[in-house]
Design brief:
alpha+beta, about 30% helix
């Protein structure tokens, strides 16, 4: 188990906002666009990441612009709203513009400078492999599509291209040779934060420590690359597991999604 030490969650959140949202590093499969003070990613993930809006009137204008952009391009767009964001009442503005609230999540962080004190290996018969070829990408997509109920095949070509990019790493856990769990690790250049995404395990293979072992593998990889912190957007089902291995809460998140 890992433990946070000598860190202030408020300071970590301020650093996260400044370096991961306001000024995001280059990432495989996406580009960043700025419209006024609004920062959004476009590509594999179409997400409004950051904004500086002084009041409700400015928020109405900015949300309207983003909604028009999404409808005009036919893209699904998420406005990622953290509970400490301003201005107040932004959720109601998003709702009026047609955005729909997704499942609430929690931004959690692990201090990679703290020592690990527990064996987080999965049970016998489980092997975790870093994806290195198109076959591994196919296994990754099969698991994510089965767990999240969405067809992720359209992302496969971008994932294959990303295999040559040092900023992203895909992992698949195999049980008796079958892909049963997977997760992604982002390693943005020049930042203190690595991040975990898409951790998912097929229902019939849960309760075996596989998800926890995938977390440990990605934490080890991030630590090996010199990152101080590891973050993840945790669902309520994952949050207790993450807390047991040392993650702490930074803030709440609600994704507001405008679908074509």
């Amino acid at each position: 188990m890992w433990y946070m030490h000598d860190v202030d969650p408020v300071e970590i959140l301020e650093l996260f906002d400044a370096t991961m949202r306001k000024d995001p590093a280059r990432a495989a499969g996406v580009r960043y666009e700025r419209v006024g003070s609004v920062v959004r990613s476009v590509g594999l993930w179409n997400v409004v990441l950051f904004w500086e809006l002084p009041d409700r009137e400015a928020a109405v204008v900015a949300v309207g612009e983003q909604a028009a952009y999404a409808r005009g391009t036919g893209l699904e767009l998420e406005w990622k709203l953290y509970e400490h964001d301003r201005p107040a009442g932004l959720a109601s503005i998003l709702e009026r513009a047609g955005f729909v609230a997704d499942e609430s999540e929690t931004l959690m962080v692990l201090d990679l400078g703290a020592p690990a004190h527990a064996d987080l290996a999965a049970r016998d018969g489980v092997e975790i492999r870093r994806v290195t070829d198109a076959a591994g990408v196919d296994d990754f997509v099969v698991v994510t599509s089965a767990v999240f109920g969405r067809d992720g095949e359209w992302k496969a070509p971008a994932y294959v291209q990303s295999l040559e990019d040092a900023g992203i790493a895909l992992f698949v856990a195999y049980r008796d040779g079958r892909p049963v769990s997977c997760g992604r690790l982002n390693l943005p250049e020049g930042r203190s934060f690595a991040s975990m995404w898409g951790g998912s395990t097929l229902p019939e293979h849960r309760g075996l420590g596989i998800y926890r072992a995938l977390v440990a593998r990605r934490a080890d990889e991030a630590r090996r690359h010199g990152y101080r912190y590891l973050t993840t957007d945790a669902r309520e089902t994952s949050r207790p597991i993450l807390e047991r291995v040392g993650f702490v809460r930074l803030t709440g998140i609600t994704g507001w999604v405008l679908r074509p």
